[in-house]
Amino acid sequence: MDKTTVEFMCGSRGPADIVNALTKELDENDIGTSTKTAVSELINAVAGVLCYLRDKGEMKLNFAALADATTFDGLMALFHRHNIPADVRKPLLTYLRELPGFPVDAIDIKRADKVEDVFAKYDFTVQRQQNESNRSYFMKPAIAAGIIKPPAPPAGTAGATGHVIRPLSDADRAAVDAQIKKHWKDSQIAWAHEFIDTTGLPGFVAVEGGRIIASLTYRNIDGVLHVVTLASDKEKRGVGTALLKAAEEEAKKLKLPKVLISTDNANLVAYSFYQRRGYVLNKAHLNIFDMLRFEKPSIPKEANRIPLRDQFDFVKDVTG
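^ that's the sequence the OP posted. Answer follows.
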């Protein structure tokens, strides 16, 4: 990797410039899409805090400092800097909250803690076999590369923000059907050249305070787990990510190699959300909504003030 551009960005530019420069460098390296995504997420989580400390004169930011900040020691050091403004610190906390088993709300984590003590349920076997430092090769890039194995998100246990992820039960049907109709105006979901009836599909729900705040339904088709709906009433809480992880674990149990999920050309938030979680664009159904409207004229012609035309399939390989 040519570090010159990244080094320059670290010294004078903002977090977005650093992330973009590093992402560009990663695109020129054959390290796999999942690992690239994981590295980008990690840098995005720490760049804001590092630039803040640099601008306050509390540290010199260069490529080496950026690399050190992504180690377990480095993340813990940033985590314990309570003089960081909440808005600057938020991406780091959001990143940590998405790691299964991380006690982000605990105040007794010491910088001297070993990663294997804090993440007792993680499998560090491969890392130890490679003689890597317990502290220096942790976080999502190592997980994406298969060097560290995170625990499976157990259904029915509380998440970091207080929600519970569990399988969808018959008692949940009415609430899930209502949530789907709230988001799609119908229980028949258009996909490719068909309409899928979501009533009766298996799935998962996120429950908080006794109420379903998010849901996911899926089906097994053509040897893949097809996520038909993913709906959340609570944004930016990690709920959608937790439901996707539950679906991915279900695919593994069913010995299905891939998870498929789709979105339309007007849903720009979903388009980036799936890619940040390791999903890769697999197929584009161009002008598909023009065809579907012949059968169902009620399909809107636009969403988010964008003409509703195309549908995109994203796929994630869960065999690794």
